[in-house]
Design brief:
The complex is a heterodimer of chains A (266) and B (197). Chain A has 11 helices and 11 strands. In chain A, helix 2 runs parallel beside helix 3, helix 8 runs parallel beside helix 9 and helix 9 packs across helix 11. The longest helix of chain A is centred in the N-terminal third of the chain and has 15 residues. Chain A starts with a helix and ends in a 7-residue tail after the last helix. The relative contact order of chain A is 0.14. With 197 residues, chain B is α/β, with parallel strands linked by helices. Chain B is 21% helix and 31% strand. Chain B contains 5 helices and 13 strands. In chain B, the strands form 2 sheets. Chain B has a 9-stranded mixed sheet. The longest helix of chain B has 12 residues. Classes of the chains: A alpha/beta (266), B alpha/beta (197).
Amino acid sequence: MESSSLQTEVIKAGNDLAKRIIPCLDVKDGRTVKGVNFVALRDAGDPVELAYQYSRQGADELVFLDITATHERRKTIVELVKAVARQVNIPFTIGGGINEISDADILLNSGADKISVNSAVVRNPAFIDELALAFGKQFVVVAIDTKHINGKNYVHLNGGRIATEIETEDWIREAESRGAGEILLTSMDHDGTKAGFDNGLLKKINNTLSIPLIASGGAGNIQDFVDVFKISNADAALAASVFHYGEILIPDLKKVLQQNNIEVRI
Amino acid sequence: MIGIVYYGAGNIFSLTAALDRLGLSYGMIKTAEDFEKYDRYIIPGVGHAGSAMQKLEDTGLVPSIIALRKPVLGICVGMQLLTTHSEEGDSELTGIIPLQTRLFSDKLNVKVPHTGWNKVFQSSKNPLFSDIRPGTHFYFVHSYFIEFNPIFTIALAEYGIKFSAVIQKDNFYGVQFHPEKSGIAGEQLLKNFAHLA
């Protein structure tokens, strides 16, 4: 009896879709770049083992950003994707250097659930349409690095190093209409500060968006995750160093989110 | 041993990887004769339901699938192929389970695609859910859903509307979520399927 009344209550609440927690791993030449500080790891530089540990801790999804710049890149990234898909039982996204349909195709067939595209689609927006047509929009995450300048938000390229004159809100609207399945929005102003997510901007964007939004940039403590979900209602929150250095453990984080009535998968 | 219907709709690397992790053996079904080699079957599928159906038709395997009497599990678009019709491309499907596949409409006021871990509530006791608690989260990625039906829906999910997370008619089962990406719960469901009588 008790479980059936609980069931009714949860269904009425209509929030059965969990907010997602996503650790992000930077990878170069098949190895993780940023330092990691997990006691359990045999090899902190091995992205596959790290991914496995995160999946065991309760991460809902993983993002790998590949920054390899050598000729061997495609081979190393495909090997990485296959190894992750073999070991890990949660979905993952791979980004970095995807410029052609064939790049995406080989990643899909190696077990990647989604690809993330950033500068390549700003330079060639029609690539979003091509990817969505070839693989379905659920496969296409458009990642955007944004920076606040003189009262407006502008898209930045190449990891935030190159400014554009494209306003972030305009680009998000275009990406969505071209077939993006999800937006990964990183605030350059907040990234690395550990002062919390850019909740104001994320809320404004999320209110106009009809595809999922992943919040990124600024996570410093558990309360920052509570705030981003409560204020912006983003669908997912992504972070790197707070997870890699063990400053936030995912089980602790999810417990606090749950205590704050935020739907999470435990 | 599980036979995976091989018809070229999407990537099966993650599915075979999950079966490998679980120590469940499998092979690929490419011709009608291959069905005899296995005691249960998985129909995978991602992408457009209409084009997936076209690819399945092209293999010539549809009559054999309809005639199967051993357990069959359709995953995601592979589940939708079991229904009669999809609003995606106004496509006629196999009609094995008399249900409609519909689009999450704007009126539901939910984001589409439905992406992420959603609670699933089983509405009847079924060995497919052995050791899986009602309300467990499974990983979904889809824009079209199968309508809720009191007879054929054996687990429901809610996302703006109640819809079929799992359907069953006789030996045919379908799951809208991806068990191969749904953590330990998804692996348990695959194990349960592998042990269905």
